[in-house]
Design brief:
- This is VOC domain-containing protein.
- It comes from Rhodococcus triatomae.
- It holds the Pfam family Glyoxalase.
- The protein is of the alpha+beta class.
- Among the domains are: 115 residues, 2,3-Dihydroxybiphenyl 1,2-Dioxygenase, domain 1 (Roll), CATH 3.10.180; 51 residues, 2,3-Dihydroxybiphenyl 1,2-Dioxygenase, domain 1, CATH 3.10.180.10.
- Helix content is 21%, strand content 40%.
- Strands 1, 2, 3, 4, 5, 6, 7, 8 and 9 form a 9-stranded mixed sheet that branches. Strands 11-12-13-10-14-17-16-15 form an 8-stranded mixed sheet.
- It is globular, with a radius of gyration of 18 Å.
Length: 280
């Protein structure tokens, strides 16, 4: 039976956190975000995989790899039409295979790679699985940011692999660089008529409707960060520490958006944004 897909090729479609303690991770995110978790399945490598949901819609996965006790980390998966072709494109453009492709029959084929700066990211060829079913709502995934020491190299790599363009966005109070996939806004507008006009009416910068992520130049190593929408970033940061997590940065306010960078008890780093209530 065919499945109506929520994400076109070239768009981040799923996130998961690799953790040495899937039970502890489920407890942390369940308390922090109100996620409900399924009973879990055995992952292809023999580890444990559970899926978190909000109001019946899948939001993220938690995986405990077999025999590994490394610190936790969030992973972003980009949908592709052909995983084998994507693997070739990654390697030919200076990336490398981190974890070879695994097949979950009837659901998806996935693999993990590193980009030229060492940032780990995933690709997923979807079948029965549709990706994250609830996004951009309180306590769900909102965006991803590539933090890298060389944005020029990143722009060439991800442009070649996924067709992304690095586009500067001016919000008045600050500027940022978006990853844009040409035509993505048209896809969203077809599914949600008025989407593009709503961005225009709301004062979004040109190209924002095609945005699939953010690009930020930093010193040191490269990584992909995951961001979540919450009702109150400051309160979420406080609650995270009560649950055994850590506040790495913030809470702070940028243009009316409260944000904080947090880590769960296993060390997996993530950001929360409240898009309205001032952090304090």
């Amino acid at each position: 039976m065919s499945v109506t897909q929520l994400y076109p090729p070239g768009v981040p479609c799923w996130i998961e956190v690799a953790t040495p303690d899937v039970v502890g991770g489920a407890s942390f995110y369940g308390e922090l975000f109100g996620w409900q978790f399924d009973s879990g399945v055995t992952a292809p490598d023999g580890g444990t995989y559970v899926v978190g949901s909000v109001e019946g819609g899948q939001v993220a996965g938690l995986v405990q790899p077999e025999g590994k006790a490394a610190a936790g980390s969030w992973r972003t998966y980009v949908r592709v039409a052909d995983l084998d072709a994507a693997t070739t494109a990654v390697v030919e453009n200076g990336g490398a295979v981190h974890t070879p492709a695994v097949d979950v029959p009837g659901l998806a084929r996935s693999a993990l790679f590193t980009d030229p700066a060492g940032a780990v990211f995933g690709v997923r060829e979807l079948a029965g699985h549709r990706g994250a079913e609830r996004v951009n709502a309180p306590n769900t995934w909102n965006f991803n940011t590539l933090r890298t020491p060389d944005t020029a190299v990143a722009t060439r790599f991800y442009g070649s692999v996924f067709g992304w363009l690095a586009t500067v966005a001016d919000f008045g109070f600050a500027t940022g660089t978006m990853w844009c996939l040409p035509g993505y806004g048209d896809f969203l507008d077809t599914r949600n008529p008025g989407w593009k006009q709503g961005h225009i009416d709301g004062g979004s910068p040109p190209g924002f409707t095609d945005a699939v992520g953010w690009l930020e130049e930093v010193e040191g190593g490269a990584d992909w960060s995951v961001e979540f929408t919450v009702a109150d970033a400051a309160r979420t940061a406080e609650r995270a520490t009560e649950l055994g997590g850590e506040v790495l940065s913030g809470p702070f306010d940028v243009g009316g958006t409260g944000s904080a960078v947090l880590a769960d008890p296993s060390g997996a780093r993530f950001t929360v944004n409240d898009y309205g209530s001032a952090a304090g």
